[in-house]
Design goal:
With 137 residues, the chain is mainly alpha-helical. Helix content is 64%, strand content 0%. It is elongated and about 55 Å long.
Length: 137
């Protein structure tokens, strides 16, 4: 029997929450927070070294903030490692999905994993910046 035009078929991928917004059945929202948190932590860990370079390039005379954040670098590094580790756990853990649910679409998981690897490489480049910065300038 054909559907009436304009009628929306209810599937797992377009379930509606009480507020009228779609529900992500795969937990993609929390994964994006993990990736964002890992990038912010990596940026924080490298501020002590990148900030003076950025400030010098911009022509500003002081990088006191970078010097003040340097003692917190180990905490930022630990937070980066924890957030990336949890993001990898969430991206590669086995997931049980019924056919038709959004988590059953391999392209969704593949995109998330590719993005996670890109963010990981970026975070490692930022974390290693103090070691190769001397060769750049």
């Amino acid at each position: 029997m054909p559907r009436a035009s304009g009628a929306k078929q209810k599937t797992a991928s377009n379930r509606m929450a009480p507020n009228g917004k779609g529900v992500d059945m795969n937990g993609g929202g929390s994964r994006s927070w993990l990736v964002t948190g890992a990038v912010i932590s990596a940026l924080g860990a490298s501020l002590c070294c990148i900030l003076p370079v950025v400030v010098a390039v911009l022509g500003v005379g002081s990088a006191a903030l970078g010097a003040k954040l340097e003692p917190f670098r180990p905490y930022f590094l630990a937070m980066t490692a924890l957030l990336l580790g949890f993001a990898f756990y969430r991206a590669y853990r086995p997931v049980e999905c019924a056919p038709g649910e959004s988590c059953a679409v391999p392209a969704n998981r593949r995109r998330s994993r590719i993005l996670l690897w890109i963010v990981t490489v970026l975070a490692l480049a930022l974390v290693a910046f103090p070691y190769y910065a001397g060769r750049l300038f």
